[in-house]
Design a protein that fits this description.
- By secondary structure, this protein is mainly β.
- Helices cover about 5% and strands about 55% of the residues.
- It has one domain (about 5-240, about 255-290, about 315-420): Outer membrane protein transport protein (OMPP1/FadL/TodX) (Porin, Beta Barrel), CATH 2.40.160.60.
- A hairpin with a 3-residue loop joins strand 20 (about 390-395) and strand 21.
């Protein structure tokens, strides 16, 4: 992987760049929870136990054996609109100067696609493929804002390819497993001087590898349980540091970044001919993100700042997500979806930055499923995230402190089409 950095206050910019990757508008940390159109309407409450369409290949590969016989393809597009508005509360030094203001709304529209395919190999075995974006989003503050020394633009994109297999061990129990090949790209900028005439920029990409496991149990004709696990993925970052105003400090660097592993337990219950009920608990090991150590491998060290180039603590915590949902079958063609969820943040008031101003959030979601034909299914879902205000207190040596809070919220609109062959 290559990293390109233009930076002067290296300890703040590099650390904020690699781990302040996204605005976190869809999940805790910089994860994206919106991985299917059918799940949005339930706030993804049924995750590891729902068997609605080919997206089960991502949530729990064991569920592929519970799909109707044949081949199935699902494609979804999610429009995410986060809102992050910083409000100053006693910033000092260079951050006390108003500049162009408090940065405006750092949130912007992001469009996230998913595609899934499943097929029977024989009565016992099924194959699936997931193409999705598990991490990323975008935040961008106004040029010249008071916090420009900490953050201007943060953009991350990920692409994940996840083939998987499922085995039907009995009439009631199936197991599944898959592997992931995941690419991560990031672009982040900040001002390297108080005047904003020197912009620090980071472009980064790498490919990592992981795996996932799942089990699904039809405990009774009406009740199904599912559990899934997804491994962490390690990125070994290598590249170059470039100083636009001081090229004598250009050189190569290296850094490691690990995204967390996670585990989910879900239940799905058919409560009569009209109602379906579901619940989900998901644990994510965000405590893997404790610090970022960036080392120079060539070039002239920055006097007074190296070695290392930066070593920043983040001290993130593991998180829990709780969700409940319900479906109401109006008729043979139409199903209404509802869901609520509570999603913890891994960040804290001490190390949180405006690149990732996340806090605990509550989801409220609804959706509709419509079957225009025997083989086709359309899903439309909407979710609103009520996000707590996030305290921010960042200190830059010799520059001062950015102190305030971020007022946050997010909206998600999903549309999906599935077809059974």
């Amino acid at each position: 992987m290559r990293i390109r950095i233009r930076i002067q206050l290296a300890s703040v910019a590099v650390s904020g760049a690699l781990l302040g990757l996204a605005g976190g508008a869809a999940a805790g940390g910089f994860g994206i929870a919106t991985q299917s159109g059918s799940g949005t309407g339930n706030a993804f409450a049924g995750g590891a136990a729902a068997v609605d369409d080919a997206s089960v290949a991502w949530f729990n590969p064991a569920g592929m054996t519970f799909l109707p016989a044949g081949k199935q393809v699902s494609g979804a597009l999610h429009a995410l609109k986060p809102s992050f508005k910083f409000q100053n509360a006693g910033s000092t030094g260079a951050f006390a100067a108003p500049g162009t203001g408090d940065g405006g709304d750092a949130g912007d529209w992001a469009f996230v696609p998913n595609a899934f395919f499943t097929m029977d190999i024989n009565p016992k075995w099924s194959f699936g493929l997931a193409l999705n974006a598990p991490f990323g989003l975008k935040t961008e503050y106004d040029a010249g804002w008071r916090g420009q020394l900490v953050a201007l633009k943060s953009e991350v994109k990920s692409v994940n390819i996840n083939p998987s297999l499922a085995y039907k061990a009995s009439d009631t129990v199936s197991i599944g497993a898959g592997v992931s090949v995941q690419k991560l790209e990031a672009k982040l900028t900040r001002a390297a001087n108080p005047a904003g005439t020197n912009i620090a920029e980071l472009d980064a990409d790498d490919v990592g590898y992981g795996f996932n496991l799942g089990i699904m149990i039809q405990a009774t004709p009406a009740t199904r349980f599912g559990a899934s696990y997804r491994s962490s993925i390690k990125y070994e970052l290598e590249g170059t540091a470039t100083f636009s105003a001081a090229p004598m400090f250009n050189g190569d660097i290296k850094a490691d970044l690990r995204v967390p592993d996670s585990a989910s337990f879900s239940v799905f219950h058919q409560a009569g001919p009209k109602w379906e009920l579901m619940g989900d608990i998901t644990w994510t090991k965000w405590s893997t993100v404790q610090q970022l150590l960036v080392l120079r491998t060539s070039g002239t060290p920055v006097p007074g700042r190296e070695p290392p180039l930066t070593n920043e603590p983040f001290r993130w915590d593991d998180t829990w997500r709780f969700g409940v949902g319900a479906n109401y079958k109006m008729d043979a063609q139409t199903k209404l979806r509802f869901g609520v969820a509570y999603d913890e943040t891994p960040t804290n008031d001490i190390t949180r930055t405006p690149r990732l101003p996340g806090e605990d959030r509550t989801w409220v979601a609804l959706g509709v499923q419509f079957k225009p034909s025997k083989a086709g299914t359309v899903e439309v879902g909407y979710a609103h995230e009520f996000i707590r205000d996030a305290s921010i207190s960042n200190t830059v040596p010799l520059a001062g402190s950015l102190i305030g809070k971020s007022e946050n919220k997010a909206d998600i609109i999903s549309i999906q089409y599935s077809h059974l062959f």
